Each structure stands twice: as C-alpha cells, then as structure tokens.
Amino acid sequence: MSETTDPGRKANAFWPSALRLLKVFAPYKLQLMTAVVVTVVSVVLQVWAPLILGEAVNVLFHTDGIDFARLGELIARVLAMYVVAMALMWLQGRILIIIGVRITYLLRQDVERKIHRVPSNWFDGTQRGDLLSRTTNDVDNIQNALQQTVSSLLNGLLTIIGITIMMFAISWRLALIALIAVPIAALVVGIIGKRAQKLFSAQWANTGKLNGHVEEAFTGHEVVTLFNRQEAMNEEFAARNDAVYQASYKAQFISGMIHPIMQWVTYLGYVGIAVVGALQVAAGRLPLGSVTAFIQYSREFNQPLGQLAGLANMIISAVASAERVFEFLDAEDEDDTDGELDQVVGAVEFQNVAFGYGETPLITNLNLRVEPGQLVAIVGPTGAGKTTLVNLLMRFYDVDAGAILLDGTDISTVSRAQLRKPIGMVLQDAVLFSGSIKHNIAYSRPDATDEQIIAAAQAARADHFINQLPEGYDTEISLDADAISAGERQLLTIARAFLSDPRLLILDEATSSVDTRTEALIQEALAKLQQGRTSFVIAHRLSTIRAADVIVVMDHGDVVEQGTHAQLVAAGGMYHDLYTAQTQHNLEGGR
Amino acid sequence: MLKLLARFGRPYLGHILAVIALQLLTVGAILFLPALNAQIIDDGIATGDTGVIWNLGGIMLAVAFAQLAAAIASVWFAARSAMSIGHDLRAAIFRRVSGFSSYQMSQFGPATLITRATNDVQQLQMVTLMSLSMLVMAPIMAAGGVVMALREDAGLSWLVWAAVPVIVVIMVGAGLKMMPLFRQMQEAIDDVNHTLREQITGMRVVRAFVREDYEAKRFTKANQHLADLAVGVGKIFVLLFPLISLVLHIATAAVLWFGGMRVADGLVEVGSLTAFMQYLLQILMAVMMATMIFLMIPRAMVAAKRINEVLATEPELTEGTREADDVAGHLEFKNVSFSYPGADEPVLEDISFTAAPGQTIGIIGSTGSGKTTLLNLIPRLIDTSAGQVLIDDVPVAEYSRAALSKVVGMVPQKAYLFSGTVASNVRFGAPNASNDDVWHALETAQARDFVIARETNGATGLESTIAQGGTDVSGGQRQRLAIGRTLAAAPKIYVFDDSFSALDATTDAALRDALAEQLSHATILIVAQRVATIQDADHILVMEHGRIVDAGTHDYLSETSTVYQQIVASQVGHV
Predict the structure, then answer these.
(1) B56 within domain boundaries
(2) Which end of chain A lies in a sparser environment, N or C, as judged by fewer CB atoms within 10 Å?
(3) CA atoms A377, A382, A384, A388: torsion sign
(4) pLDDT per residue as tens digits for the range A282-325
C-alpha cells in the first residue's frame, strides 16, 4: 500500500518484470510461432534478393552486349521475392497487432477484475489517483510499446541473424570484427539500460504521484476555491510536475543515448572492417569484391541493430510501467469462503466481537442479538463505531476476534456474495454511477420492471423530484453534477436499496441530508417495507430512532445500552442524555 | 496540434534549433563515412598503400566520434525540450482548471480533466520527442536521397517522380482512414478509464449489491470496444510499411530494367546505376522512420484537441480588485435569482434578505429547495443570474478572490478533506496558524478529544494522517474537522451548509454553544434539517422551490408558518 509508491524500491527488478511481461504472450505461442516462421521466410527472401539483384547488376557489366532476357528473368524473380516477402510482412504485422491488442485487453481485464478482489481496506491507504494512474497511464504505455516494438523487434533480430550467417559465409575473420559490436552493444545497453530503468521507474512513480495530486485538487476543487488556495495547490503541483519532468527528461536522455552509442560502436566495426579488409586485400589474402560485399552487409547489419537500440527506451519504459501494474495485480486477494446461506430469516448476533482498523482496537468486546423482523436503531456519538458495526456485518472488514452469526451461521464461513445478496444497504456517502436515474435505481436489481422502479422511487419519496427533471427517469446523471442536490442523491440511493427487496436492510445515516418532512414520509414507507425483514438504522435524529424495536446505544466501540425508547429514557443513562439534549429545545419551541 | 506545439514550443526554440543543427551534423557524418570508405578502396587498396589506409581509417574514426558527440547532444536537447513542453502543458492545464467554477468543473467532469492533464499530455510530449529525434532526420535523409539520386542520372529521375507521389498518396490515404479511428480510440480510452474510476470510487456500492459481475461485463464491453478499434487501426497501419517498401522495390527493379537499356545504349555507367539504387534504399529507410511516428501523430492530434478544449475554456468566474481589510461582514441578498444555463426552471427566484455582524440566519426547507445554491452564491462558487449579493454594500464580484475567501468562510455540505495530516487540513485556509490556533479551532469544533486520541502508524494527534477525501474518519469527525478548518481561517461571515447533519444531538448542541460564544461578532448563516440547530437563530428563512416562503424568528414562524409547523411536527412527533 503506502510503500508501493516508493519509486526506487524495486528499480532493479527489470528482468523479472520483463520476463513476466513476455510470459503474457504464452497463450499465443501458436500465433507467435506462425509469426516467427513467416518472418523467417520473409527475412530470408529479403536477404537473398540483393544477391540476385547483384547478379542482375553483373549482367549489365557484360561489355559484349546485355542479355535482356536474362535480366528480365532476374528482375522478375527479385520482384516475385519481394512481393512474397512483403505479403508475409503484412501477414506478420497482422498477427502481431492482434496479439498485441489482445494482450493489452487481457491486462486491462486483469486489472479490472483485481479491483473487485482486493480487500476493502486496500483502498484506505492508497492514493486513488496513483491507482488510477497505474490502471490507465501505465497500461497505456505498455500498449504503445507492444504495438510499436514487437514487430520491429522480431524483424530486427531475425535480420541480424540472417546477415550474420551471410557475413560468416564470406569471411569469418571480418565477421568476427563486425560481431565485436554485439557484446560491446550488450554491455552499453546493460549499463545505460539499468540507469534508464531506474529513471523510468521514477518517472512513472512520479506520474502516479502527480496524478494523485491532480485527482485530489480536481475533486476537492470546491474547497480549494473556497479557501482561495489555488496558489498553494499550484506550488505542490509544480513540485510534483518538476519531479516528473526531471525524471522523464533524464530517462529519455539516458535511454536515448543508447541509439547513438550503438551506432557509434557499429561504426567502429565498420571502420575496422574497412581498414582490416583493405590491409587484407593489400596483402592479397582477400579479393576486393568480397570486401565491398562485406561492407554492404555490415551496413545492413548495423541498420537493424540501430533500430533495435532505438526501441530500447520504449521497452525499458514499458517494463517500468509493467512493474507498477504487476505490483497492483500481485496485491493480496481478499480471501473468500464458499459457504452457502439458506433462506435468510434475519436473526443477527454479534458474539464477543473485537476489531480495529489498524493496531489500535476500536471494538473490544461487542455483543448484540437481533431477532428477525426487528427494526434496530444504532445511536451514539460520532466515532463510536456505528458504521464499523455495519462494515463488519457486510464483511467489508472481518472481525479480529469473536463472530457474527446470521441465522446461526458464522458469516465468516459464508461467501461474501452470498452474504451480501440478501442485504440492502444505503451508505453514508451517496454514490451514484453515470447513467440514467432509472439505471441507478435498478443497480440493485437489474431485472426490475419500470413499475417496480417507480414504486421504489415513490417509497423513497424520490418520485416527485425525478418527475420534475426534464427527462424524468431517463435523466442522465454525471458523476459530480450539481443539478441534483445532496438530499436528492440520498433519496435515489434509498430507492435503490428498497428496490432490491432485501431480507436485511441497512441504512447508514441514509437521510442525513434529507429534510425531516420527507424523512417522515420515508419512515412510513420503511415501516410498511419493514414487515418481515430485519433493519439496521444508524441515525441521529430522534424521529428516526423512536420507532425502533430495539435501540442500541454505542460508545467507544461497545454497546453500552439497549432497549426500547421508553426503557432507555427511564433508565436515565447515555440515551436519556442524548434524548434530552435533542428534545428540550424542540419541546419548548414546539408547544 | 501544431498551433499548440508552436505556442508551447516557442520558449524552447533555441533547443529545437540546436536539435536540428546537430542532426544535420549527424546526417552529414553518416553520409560522409561511405565516401571515406570509397576513398580507402580507391586510393588505399587499389594502390596498396597501407599508410593511406591507416590515415583514412583515423579520419573515419574521428568522424565517428564527432557523430557520436553530435547525436548525444541532440538527444539531450530533444529530451529536454520535449519534456519541458509536456511540463508546461500540464502546468497550463492545471492552472486553467484551478480557475474553473464548480459548474464548469462539472461540465467537463474531473475524470476527463485528469486524463487530459496527464495522459493526453503524455501523448503529445512523446510525439514531440519522436518528431525531434526522427522526424527531423527522416526528411533530411529522404530529401538527401532524392537529390543525390537525381544528380546521379537525370535520365531515370522520372522513376523518383513516379514513386514519391505514390508513397505520399498511400501515407495520406492511410492517415485519413486512421484519423477518425484514432479519435474514437481516444474516446474509448476515456470510457475505459471512466469506468475504472467509477468502480474504484463506488467500490462499496458495487460490493454491497454484489454487482461485480455486472461491472466486469460493463468494463469488458468498453475494453472490447477499445480493442476492436485498436485492431482496426493496427490493420491499416501494418499494411503501410510493406506497401511502401514494395513501391520502392518495384522502383529499384525498374531502375535495373530501364537503366539496363540506357547502359546498353551507352548513356550511363553501371556505377551510377548502383549508386542510384543505394539512394532509393536510403529514401526507403527515411520513409520507414516516418511511419513509426505516423502511428503516434493522429493520436497526439486528438490529444491536442482535447487539451485545447480545456485551455480555450475561459474561467467563468472573474475576480474584482477590491481588498477587504476593513470589511465588517454585512451581507445582503437583493432580488437574487439563479438558473443553470439552458434550464427552464430557475433554482432560486427573487431572494432578498440581510444579515448583519453578530446575527445568525437559519435556513430550512425541503430537499432540493435551493438552499445549497443560495449559499454557493456568497463565496462565488457560482454567480447570480439576476440580482446582487452584497457584502458591506459592495457586490461580491468586485472583491478579489483572496479578499472574498478571507471574508467568507464556508463549510460545504460534502466535507472534503485532503490527504495529509489533521494539522495540514486545519491549516488549509490559514497556513500560518500556530499549533495553539489549530487546537483552539478544533476545540470549538468539538474535535479536540478525538484528535488527541487519534493514532495512525505511530503519528498521533495533529500529526496523525488523513486519507484522500477523509475516508478514514467517521462522517461526524469529518464534518467537525471541516468546521475546524473554516474556524482556523477566521473569516467575517460563516456559512454552514448542513454541516452538522452527521453529528449526534449532544455534540451538535455543544458545538452550537461554542460557536455562539466564539463567534458573537460574526455573521453566521446555517442551513440545517434539524429545527434544533437553527431555532436560536435571529432570523429563519423557510425555503420551498427556490423561494423564501416564510421568514422570522422561531417563535413567530411556529405561530404563522404552516410549512415551518409541518417541519417542526415531523421532528417532535406527537409527544
């Protein structure tokens, strides 16, 4: 989590990540082999064709008249070879582009699946912007590299091999000189590549951090404007932007050096060949023709080598990105159990539950029994652990000790999906998705009919305002739009929970932004809906609480009182104090 | 795209010119080496003079070194200028978005703005880098090739004039076909990112309703769409290189055939014919380099367009120049109306009231009645459509932003906290506040106790950390920290937008008592759902459908206002 953003931590893990990226190709072995074979044939034709062209040139040298029939035949052969070679190149390109796209597709799929599998608390400590940067910027970077390098990589490698063979065929001595360039090149790439890799890791880590800041500044835009803190945000942005700039220009410079250095090394080879070749010819050990042919080949040898080196920065950068993506994919999964739940009746029991978000325990020993069909109100000061109680029941978090039983079954043995299906929950933050209002209500139950959706909206008292919107139930909701107020958002999420027709209903301060008259109407609907299901309501407002069958008073993570409204008022404890604090003014004023 | 790059590239013109000059040097060296080699063959080998061979070898080595130095320097200038342009673009976008109003913000949506500020800029900066390192070189090489080819034998130059237009037609045709696909592709990437963002922010809801499968399907659809487009683009692209190569190979073959005829007629030497073929190959190489970048340019053009959209959006909220050193905090709404652009119904209609220092104004009303909109007008998160909001008889628009933020302190309905520490959040509006000030603000906000008890990874109290959005504190704690943040800034006018909704009644009451004591000289506006929160206010506004329907003290409204009576009744019940 927090340490995952440390830029230098695994900066040396180039090969593991690179190999792992290669392994992604494994399912496409067959296609890849086809591509290799196709490329081999194509490269052989392309290396061969110049020889025939050379023959054709020789035909022109015949001083006693040019044999045009022979020339025509040779040209036709060369043309045929090139047509085939290019058709094969095209075929190879098609195969590789499809594999490349497919792999990025699968990588994205993996990332998305992973989001649903990591434990809920994974999101607590991670900057959302950094995670988003991993899933977008980094994956995108890999995609670009796959699209642009794989084909050239294959062509280049095979061409080098082909030309090496040809060079050895002419003169092994000169070939060795040409090949000296290879280990030197490998050394150069190794040394520079390592530095570049560190810098690229830093670049992408810094990009993640920058993204985190941008994400925060843009989502907290209102607060920034209110306090006129644009300048301070800009300063922070500038610092992170500079960090990205520093890392990325250095990374590009260092990795960009690979190409000229490699070219230089090959030029050295070229000079060596020219000098040694010339000396050999001068000594009469080699014919001049061989040396010129050799120089031709060594130039052709250098060309793909340079091309490969030019791809190095893209590849190194992509591997650095891959490392960040893999880091997320390697995060530990939420362990799930596969127990089943029978028909849920709705008896809930907390037995000696202990829990803490970090090391500090929040709940030490919580016991609570709820009968099926009861309406349970949970009250208590903020931070008393009310939401935590619900989080545990939903298994967003698991208890540290003790057990929670649903109809006598320990919920930690039940699969999370099984457990959550019969529960309808309205969270403290009213989260809506982009899409129509109808779509948002039906989120809890995709097969719902329009009538059911409208009925749920009516019960949640959302129907009225929805009908006033220009397009009613088909009005599109944008993520952060202003047009729908906070209270209205809550009404939509309540409608969503109502529609799912749950056995257990959990409302976590679901009506905090809703006016009390509307809330009272929702209460009525809730009372009707209440029949035969267990409900948990977290609320501060007395009007909400009074109707409950059981009121649970929490403080410092534990249940301190429970009972009906009348019992608790009579008991004169914490609830009594809360109750009088809220009512005395109202009672005075209301009369 | 060119306009944008020209604008942001201007400061780095020197660098860019250096890149071009250095690359000319590099290309010169590259072209010089074969000539030296030819000389070794002609002067060295032919005469068997080893001294000449060593000499020329030494010159070749020197040229190779010069080429290396020039190439590395060029890479440095290219990397520096391309990344600087990216840096400046990001900064420009960020600055521009900082000046957006809330409405403009929601028009774009934070998700796409984030993509534009990072991913789109990334595209543009990479294409700039590639262009600088290759696009400069490719035309020089191609042009050099064409010129040299034409010089060798004018009789065959028609082949060059035939091949080059064919290549241009192929490239332009492919470009035109790919452009719209690239635009769709960038939109598809947006869509994929947007879906991921929603899944991450709405993770609890997805899990609570067990809709992981649905989300997976939704994502797969977006992802598949993106993949389909990528394959579509890729299929055109992979055709490009073989096709162009083929054209050049056919041209080479033609050179041999027609050249052969000219050789037979004694019009041309074989040597220049082979050289001619060499130069054709060089053109091919140059074209191949260009196609590499060709893949990136259309995407970068789309990115540039999206960046331009942001940069071309003028910040809606202007600011005045008036400072507010001696503002008392007298607030007045004069016949204020507000409606969203294009909406039929106004959100606020004809709102008038005044609030003097020392006064508390309570605002109550049903969900969606316009309470938040009304408050947003005071710090100018939005501007009125008609009428005026005045502070000390001066329209709010005449104050500078800095002055306004000093005068108006608003606690928004959504208590957003930034990642950092408790202290960094409370100091957000008052960077110079001392620890005592911070503690004082927290105490008034009833946050002192839980802050003292807070511990995160060894950091305690003020230094304990806060996650982005404040997701690691409870709703009520978040609200109190947000209140503390505003208190620390010590404005003249306090605006609380339903800022006590997550507080229990005891804390609520204690907080109000503390506020009444501490802020006795301030102007206070409180929107609330609970009657108890506002009943002590000097003046209460009752809102319905964007209008003030009743106004007065609690006692007065309890007697005269049916709406207010209903609200009271819904809270007290029938005791």
Answers:
(1) no
(2) C
(3) positive
(4) 777 777 777 777 777 777 777 777 777 778 778 888 988 999 89
